[in-house]
Design brief:
The complex is a heterodimer of chains A (about 240) and B (about 270).
Chain A: E1 3-14, E2 17-28, E3 32-36, H1 43-50, E4 58-63, E5 66-67, E6 77-80, H2 96-106, H3 113-122, H4 138-150, E7 156-160, H5 168-183, E8 187-192, E9 204-209, E10 211-217, H6 218-225
Parallel strand pairs in A: 3-8, 3-9, 6-7, 7-8
Antiparallel strand pairs in A: 1-2, 1-4, 4-5, 9-10
Helix pairs in contact in A: 2-4
Chain B: H1 2-34, H2 40-58, H3 64-89, H4 93-114, H5 120-127, H6 135-164, H7 173-195, H8 206-214, H9 221-243, H10 247-265
Helix pairs in contact in B: 1-6, 1-7, 1-8, 1-9, 2-3, 2-4, 2-5, 2-7, 3-4, 3-7, 5-7, 6-7, 8-9, 8-10, 9-10
The chains are: A alpha/beta (about 240), B mainly alpha (about 270).
Chain lengths: ~240, ~270
């Protein structure tokens, strides 16, 4: 299976505090990986190392077989960061249409207009395209962010806690939509601390709390964690700490 | 009418210099405002006093073509201490700015007291003088505007995400931010000569704020920015002539009318 991301022996500390310790992780094409763990467990930090925002003290990161330092084809990667209030900054002049097209402007890559129109329709943004992002609701901004991440038809998309603040039904619908994209061949990496959300569509799970405590297939994780069905809580010990 | 034309002819180089300075400042302003750093140009104008004093003591008769790059370079180096302090001491940017400003002003005061030579250019930078602007000032303003425009056209999307603090993998913000700061220093040094250090930073706030509020999209924003700035300078010159008040103050009064209109329209 083609390797999308390879992380080897990653170590990162801030002011002497270890955030990541000897983390090894492989993400293969077609994976729908959930990186789970407690708050402050290093999930977002790991993602930032994978995407080159942070430089680890030791260890290496390869994307599509290339070391992160020399990787240039960023349009192959979609990224939905943790939601920020700045999207609602009243002065933000971007319209939804401009916001969605932002990666194509930054990476100087042409958008596939037919595919984009399809995405806009799926996520129900057609009526909002000329509106300023600042005037949108929380949920509408989230949908626009996902369309933005998928607009360049990336091979892999990273989502950092994308369902925070959404009610259960919206979270469920959101994961069903992601599962459908995964079936069509998109590799998906989602970060969450809401383990009870683990959806059936997710194929692999990685438990991170400074170190990687578990990395394997979803069904096996559910058995080991006593997660009999969707919506129940896992065994905390598997996640590397006693109290959630 | 003849009086007014005579007045215009007297200040033509100052007016043209100010016009191109205001267009350069206008193009930079949205990024400063979106970054919640509206007082950065004001900080730069205060930091600038130290380089001006140092230059006037070491090179008392330096030509403007050399004085401006030297002042820009020294201001840039001093302003980098803001980021250094911010990182090293883990403090907010405004605290770091305050420290650098006050230290620069204190050193400038020491130099002013201890330095025995009087340099008239210092006064022109402090309070600005539109009458002192020459063809040379106009030419420099035009070049800075063209460079700013090219920089804006090439990096407008990267500058926007940097100002908003958004992360996109593979986009290097550090180098871009440094170049942006260099442009700011260049504009501030240039603007200070015509408008004075006290008022130059107003050109980074009024029109930029109004354009950000009323522009229907980011694509159309430069049009609003350039139009508002383009109208402000002659508008300020007319008020200055009619009320017999300093040009820099009248231009700011004119720009505040945009805000007043915006408030009245309920935006």
């Amino acid at each position: 299976m083609k390797r999308i991301v390879e992380v080897k022996g990653l170590n990162l500390s801030f002011n002497g505090v270890k955030i990541l310790e000897d983390v090894d992780l492989i993400i293969e094409k077609g994976d729908f990986l959930a990186i789970i763990g407690p708050n402050g467990g290093g999930k977002t930090t790991l993602l930032k190392c994978i995407l080159g925002f942070l430089k680890p003290q030791t260890g290496e990161v390869k994307i599509f077989g290339e070391p992160i330092e020399s990787f240039r084809n960023w349009a192959k990667i979609g990224y939905v960061p943790q939601r920020s209030k700045d999207y609602h900054l009243k002065l933000n002049p971007l319209t939804v249409e401009e916001f969605i097209a932002l990666p194509s402007k930054l990476y100087r890559v042409k958008l596939n207009q037919n595919k984009l129109a399809e995405l806009i329709k799926i996520f129900g943004l057609s009526e909002l395209l000329s509106k300023r992002l600042a005037n949108l609701s929380f949920g509408q901004v989230q949908r626009a962010q996902i369309v933005q991440a998928l607009a360049l038809e990336p091979e892999v998309v990273f989502l950092d806690e994308p369902t925070v603040g959404l009610d259960f039904m919206r979270q469920k619908n959101f994961y069903e939509l992601l599962t459908e994209f995964n079936r069509q061949g998109l590799t998906i990496v989602v970060i969450t601390h809401e383990t009870w959300l683990l959806h059936r569509g997710i194929s692999k799970v990685a438990c991170l709390n400074r170190r990687l405590y578990y990395h394997g297939i979803h069904e096996e994780f559910c058995q080991l964690a006593g997660l009999a069905k969707e919506g129940t809580f896992p065994d905390f010990h598997l996640l590397g700490h006693e109290h959630w | 009418m003849d009086d007014f034309l005579g007045y215009l002819s007297l200040i033509k180089w100052g007016l043209l210099s100010c016009l191109f300075f205001s267009l350069s400042a206008g193009l930079s302003s949205p990024f400063i405002l979106l970054n919640r750093n509206a007082l950065l140009p004001h900080a730069l104008t205060h930091i600038l006093l130290l380089p001006l004093l140092v230059i006037s003591i070491i090179f008392p008769n330096l030509d403007e073509y050399f004085l401006i790059p030297l002042a820009v370079g020294l201001t840039l180096i001093l302003s980098l201490f803001i980021w250094l302090l911010e990182r090293r001491l883990s403090i907010f940017e405004d605290s770091a700015s305050a420290i650098v400003i006050h230290l620069s002003l204190a050193l400038a005061l020491v130099l002013a007291v201890k330095g025995s030579k009087y340099d008239y250019r210092l006064l022109s930078y402090l309070f600005g003088d539109i009458l002192l602007a020459t063809e040379q000032s106009f030419f420099i303003s035009l070049v800075v505007f063209v460079l700013t425009l090219l920089f804006f056209i090439k990096h407008r999307y990267s500058l926007l995400i940097s100002a908003l603090g958004w992360e996109f993998p593979g986009i290097n913000m550090a180098r871009l931010n440094l170049i942006f700061l260099l442009f700011l220093c260049l504009q501030v040094v240039l603007g200070a000569k015509i408008l004075g250090v006290l008022l130059v930073s107003a050109f980074y706030n009024f029109c930029g704020l109004v354009a950000l509020k009323i522009s229907p999209s980011y694509r159309q924003m430069p049009l609003y920015l350039l139009s508002l700035n383009l109208a402000s300078v002659p508008g300020g010159a007319i008020i200055s002539y009619l009320l017999d008040i300093p040009f820099s103050a009248s231009t700011i009064i004119f720009m505040s009318l945009y805000l007043l209109l915006m408030i009245l329209k309920g935006r």
